[in-house]
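Usage

Read records sequentially. Each one opens with the input sequence:
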Amino acid sequence: MWIGSAPVYTRGHGRLAADLPHHIFVILAVLWVAFVGYFLFGVVGAMWHESRILNRALYKVEQIQHHLAKQRLTDSEDSLGLEARKLLKRVQTTFRVGPHGAPRASGRSSGVP
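and closes with the structure output:
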Protein backbone atom coordinates (compact mmCIF):
# COMPACT_ATOMS: atom_id res chain seq x y z
CA MET A 1 0.00 0.00 0.00
CA TRP A 2 1.30 3.38 -0.93
CA ILE A 3 0.44 6.30 1.36
CA GLY A 4 2.99 8.81 0.12
CA SER A 5 5.41 8.68 3.02
CA ALA A 6 7.62 5.78 2.00
CA PRO A 7 7.96 3.15 -0.70
CA VAL A 8 5.75 0.08 -0.48
CA TYR A 9 7.39 -3.14 0.68
CA THR A 10 6.58 -6.41 -1.08
CA ARG A 11 6.45 -10.00 0.29
CA GLY A 12 9.93 -10.59 -0.83
CA HIS A 13 12.90 -8.46 -0.05
CA GLY A 14 12.25 -6.07 -2.89
CA ARG A 15 10.74 -2.60 -2.73
CA LEU A 16 8.61 -0.79 -5.28
CA ALA A 17 9.82 2.44 -6.76
CA ALA A 18 8.62 5.76 -5.28
CA ASP A 19 6.45 6.95 -8.15
CA LEU A 20 5.24 10.20 -6.62
CA PRO A 21 7.43 12.78 -4.92
CA HIS A 22 6.47 13.50 -1.32
CA HIS A 23 5.67 17.21 -1.78
CA ILE A 24 3.27 16.46 -4.67
CA PHE A 25 1.55 13.79 -2.52
CA VAL A 26 1.11 16.30 0.31
CA ILE A 27 -0.33 18.91 -2.07
CA LEU A 28 -2.77 16.40 -3.58
CA ALA A 29 -3.79 15.07 -0.15
CA VAL A 30 -4.47 18.60 1.14
CA LEU A 31 -6.44 19.48 -2.01
CA TRP A 32 -8.49 16.26 -1.68
CA VAL A 33 -9.35 16.97 1.96
CA ALA A 34 -10.20 20.58 1.06
CA PHE A 35 -12.50 19.40 -1.74
CA VAL A 36 -14.29 16.92 0.53
CA GLY A 37 -14.59 19.58 3.26
CA TYR A 38 -15.93 22.13 0.77
CA PHE A 39 -18.48 19.62 -0.49
CA LEU A 40 -19.64 18.62 2.98
CA PHE A 41 -19.79 22.05 4.54
CA GLY A 42 -20.37 24.15 1.45
CA VAL A 43 -22.83 22.27 -0.69
CA VAL A 44 -24.60 20.23 1.99
CA GLY A 45 -24.60 23.22 4.36
CA ALA A 46 -26.13 25.43 1.66
CA MET A 47 -28.84 22.83 1.00
CA TRP A 48 -29.57 22.65 4.75
CA HIS A 49 -29.71 26.46 4.96
CA GLU A 50 -32.12 26.67 2.01
CA SER A 51 -34.40 24.04 3.54
CA ARG A 52 -34.36 25.97 6.81
CA ILE A 53 -35.37 29.18 5.00
CA LEU A 54 -38.12 27.26 3.17
CA ASN A 55 -39.43 25.82 6.44
CA ARG A 56 -39.53 29.30 7.99
CA ALA A 57 -41.41 30.67 4.97
CA LEU A 58 -43.92 27.81 5.08
CA TYR A 59 -44.44 28.38 8.81
CA LYS A 60 -45.06 32.08 8.17
CA VAL A 61 -47.60 31.28 5.43
CA GLU A 62 -49.32 28.87 7.82
CA GLN A 63 -49.52 31.59 10.47
CA ILE A 64 -50.99 34.04 7.94
CA GLN A 65 -53.57 31.48 6.82
CA HIS A 66 -54.49 30.80 10.44
CA HIS A 67 -54.85 34.52 11.11
CA LEU A 68 -57.02 35.01 8.00
CA ALA A 69 -59.24 32.05 8.91
CA LYS A 70 -59.62 33.40 12.43
CA GLN A 71 -60.44 36.84 11.03
CA ARG A 72 -63.03 35.36 8.63
CA LEU A 73 -64.61 33.47 11.53
CA THR A 74 -64.73 36.62 13.65
CA ASP A 75 -66.19 38.64 10.76
CA SER A 76 -68.89 36.02 10.13
CA GLU A 77 -69.76 35.97 13.84
CA ASP A 78 -70.02 39.75 13.83
CA SER A 79 -72.33 39.78 10.83
CA LEU A 80 -74.36 36.90 12.25
CA GLY A 81 -74.60 38.76 15.54
CA LEU A 82 -75.91 41.86 13.77
CA GLU A 83 -78.57 39.85 11.93
CA ALA A 84 -79.51 38.08 15.15
CA ARG A 85 -79.82 41.42 16.93
CA LYS A 86 -82.07 42.76 14.17
CA LEU A 87 -84.23 39.64 14.35
CA LEU A 88 -84.38 39.84 18.14
CA LYS A 89 -85.41 43.49 17.97
CA ARG A 90 -88.13 42.62 15.43
CA VAL A 91 -89.39 39.79 17.65
CA GLN A 92 -89.35 42.03 20.72
CA THR A 93 -91.40 44.70 18.98
CA THR A 94 -93.84 42.09 17.65
CA PHE A 95 -94.35 40.28 20.94
CA ARG A 96 -94.50 41.69 24.41
CA VAL A 97 -94.05 39.60 27.48
CA GLY A 98 -97.16 39.25 29.68
CA PRO A 99 -97.21 39.27 33.48
CA HIS A 100 -96.32 35.57 33.82
CA GLY A 101 -93.62 35.51 31.17
CA ALA A 102 -95.97 34.32 28.43
CA PRO A 103 -95.66 36.24 25.19
CA ARG A 104 -98.67 38.23 24.06
CA ALA A 105 -99.23 39.93 20.78
CA SER A 106 -98.51 43.61 20.58
CA GLY A 107 -100.74 46.16 18.97
CA ARG A 108 -99.48 45.14 15.55
CA SER A 109 -101.22 42.29 13.87
CA SER A 110 -98.60 39.90 12.67
CA GLY A 111 -100.77 36.83 12.37
CA VAL A 112 -98.53 34.94 14.79
CA PRO A 113 -99.95 34.46 18.34
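Summary fields computed downstream for this record:
- The two ends are 107 Å apart (CA to CA).
- The chain has a mean pLDDT of 75.
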